[in-house]
Amino acid sequence: MNLTSKRLLFASACIMLAATGTSALAADAAGADVAEVIVTGSRIKHADITGVGPATVVTEEAISRTGVANVETLLQRLPASAGNAGGQTNAYWTGNGYGTAQVNLRGLGINRTLVLLNGRRVVYGGTGANSAVDLNTIPAAIIGRIDVLKDGASAIYGADAVAGVVNIITRTDFEGVQVTGKYGVTDKGDGEEFTGDLLWGQRGERGGFTAALNYQKTKPVNMADREPCGLGEVGGQLVCVGSASTIGGRAVLPNGQQINFNQTLGGNGNFFEPYSAAKHNFNSNPFLNAVSAIERISVGVFGDYDLTDNVQMFGEFMFTNRKTDQIATPGTLRNLSIAATNPTNPTGQNIVLIQRRLAEPGPRQFFQETDTWRLVGGARGKFAGDWTWEVAGNWGKTTGVDGSTNIANLQRVGETLNPAVCSAAANATIPCGDYLGFGDLTPQVLKYILATTRDTGGNEQKSVTADVTGTLFQLPAGPLAAAAGVVYREEIGYRNPDQLTVLGIANTNQQSPIRGQVKTKEAYLELSAPLLADLPMAQRVELNGAVRYSDYDLFGDNVTYKVGLNWTVMQGLRLRATYGTGFRIPSVPELFGGVAEGNLTTTDPCSRYSTSSNATLVANCRASGVPAGYVQLGNTVLTTVGGNQNLQPEKSENLTLGAVFQPTFVSGLSVTVDYFDIQITDAIRNIPGSTKLSVCYASPNLSHPFCSPANFRRSPLTGEVNFLSSQPSNAGKEVMKGVDFGVRYTRDIGSLRAELDWNTTYLAKYEITPFLGADPIIFDGRIGGGNGGYPHWRSNAALTVSDTNWNASWSVQMIGKAKDFNAAPTAIGSTTSNVFYHFVQASYRINEKANVAVGIDNLFDKDAPFIQSWTDANTDTMTYDLLGRRGYVRLQYTF
């Protein structure tokens, strides 16, 4: 059956039901007496079966056994996570989200994964105008379980649920006071982390509350302590390449020759010589962090109170304050014209100072502080038999301040280079500056040109929801259940960069103010209809469906739907299928983000092209005017990023086919297999600069549209890429296909309890067509180039053995081999091998109140593999571990 036939079949079922959708954890016939609850992926009550279905359910016990203190780390280890997502070891690369932690299901993008808390949306994190939730605003101690729905759910939850849903469910059953402390450190004695949790709960006859307090402080890890320098291949060997922004200053003479000025502190201030990358390039690694410092305090209070036997009030309050900071390389001045007559110019010729790194004041210090608030209040109740209702208001707000020290005011730099304005006098208002040679800038000049920038921003979300669910009437095979509701939601994002940044006179990424708002009105209907029951080969057949109408003030209205079939063939064997449509509107930063520039890691395919055996590449580089001996100077290119107000919503179609096998002859065994097929049209993508260049120079006669001047241009003097665009656009199409496998097995061995939980994802296909008519860009089996990792295989297995007083857990994360997106097949680091990370933990219950646990992460101290087009630290920081082996101890006491 082709995909069109499947769509017609599912659409027919949708018309029959007047709605579509399916439960992520559908009820098994054998569990008829299990209490019914609302589970992720449906608004209708179902019997909850942990660990079977197109969802991964991470329980409170499983979280405790991992020793993980952060939600982000737990989720990013899941096989269904791929691509790039911000975290503590790679937050430097997330725009305006420094220090935030996100999840990227399927690798389809952090803004295509919907994050919920108790089934409700959470305000975006970051320092303003962001498009993803900061997972670590939720205290880990209060988490009861995490449902990861690996299926589109826009018909159930609205926009953004294209790749799936992460629903974090808080605890409601805890009584007493529990104190937990954890201390961890790496083998090298750095990266110290302390986490403290306080959990307090009380329950009475009519209600109760659960409160949590979390404190985390992590010390930084310098990147040079893990990777001494940035590596590149030269002559078949890996050598330190560094950045062509030198501390002495790299300049070009009128004849095109490049020279470099003195780089020895206290040396001859007039000295210059021919530029040599090997001799003069700058090593950035000592000025970057592998792990950045963070300090966070979070508070959460969740309560409920029964007004009557049929009406309950409930409320949620959360607050998080986060302080983070990172060091960054000293800033760079670019393209300064210095006349031959300038007293500081020893060459006697007019020169252009291409790049000069301001190393005298030391590294820049980036800093952020964010406050995140969340309030939920509402009521729920029962009426007319099994019908229930709920009305709730949800408000969240994040405010942030961020900035950097040692930012140069380019207007003032120009003044210090103008002899008609500046003065060499000791107390001159505008001192003259000598930028040709390291150490020649005086403290007076540095004080005059340097500033600390300060940006402000935030995100706000408001929503009101009303839902009802219950049984409409009885069918021959069982009750016809329904759920319906309405939603009103407002989302606001804003960011106000420092005035120097807005004016473009700072030696940092130019930005414009951002402010945008989206208002949404929605209504949905979901039905669950049992078709057959208690028949041969049809113990239970259930058809589920949902339809959602959405009206956006900026984009008009849209209808999404989902239909699913859940077929219990016999006891222990269940088949399921779903087909649904999705819809995602552009986020505020995607729409309204001001155009900015930043130095992003980029691989230039024309570097050393004259030695290449690729005739097409050689011809194209020559046609672009690239000199024969050209070598890319460093690993970054100034890239234009920002918003695009011409963006339109993207649409998706999601097909899943699965089976659940729980054989009666093997007690405790559950096996799941789920095939997924996702297609996204008008997809919003930022195609990385490395990918654009690679695709362009692989096309005959530079025929690919990526070769147009609107995408990149080169300097006629040096051949360097001096303009590169990576703004978002509505790409033509994205297609992803693969299979999820799950095995869960529990068994008693004498007095011991053994449990195996093994999940694997096979990514068979992921291709992006950047625009109609273009050749697809293959992502499956690829890694690097700023895209993150998309290996064909990812897996995670955990084995736990326990008895009454102790348990031991061993888990293995496997990241499959992959090819570099941009590297030549024969280049060093063009492919990676399978990487295995091992984690062990043992805990012991000292008595009924006290518990101690010790653990080791990355047990065998596995190094991150070298990637040719690395993002940082010579690897893909979005995929691999930089820290190496680290241990921790956790103490817990319950009063």
Task: Report what the structure shows.
It is a single chain. This protein is mainly beta. The chain has a domain at 3-216 and 293-320 and 372-392 and 533-541 and 555-582 and 646-686 and 730-780. Helix content is 9%, strand content 48%. The chain is built from 11 helices and 49 strands. Strand 32 (650-661) and strand 33 form a beta hairpin. The chain is globular and about 95 Å long. The termini are far apart. The model is unreliable at 1-35, 48-53 and 90-95 (pLDDT under 50).
Question: Could you write a compact summary of the structure shown?
Answer:
The protein is mainly beta. The chain has a domain at 3-216 and 293-320 and 372-392 and 533-541 and 555-582 and 646-686 and 730-780. It contains eleven helices and 49 strands.
Distance between the termini: 61 Å
Beta fraction = over 45%
Low-confidence stretches: 1-35, 48-53, 90-95
Helix/strand/pairing category: mainly beta
Find the count of extended strands (DSSP E, 2+ residues). 49
Query: What count of helical segments does DSSP give?
Result: 11
Average predicted local confidence, pLDDT: 88
Bulk shape: globular
> Largest sheet, described in full?
22 strands, antiparallel, barrel
Helical residue percent band:
under 10%
Q: How large is the radius of gyration?
A: 29 Å
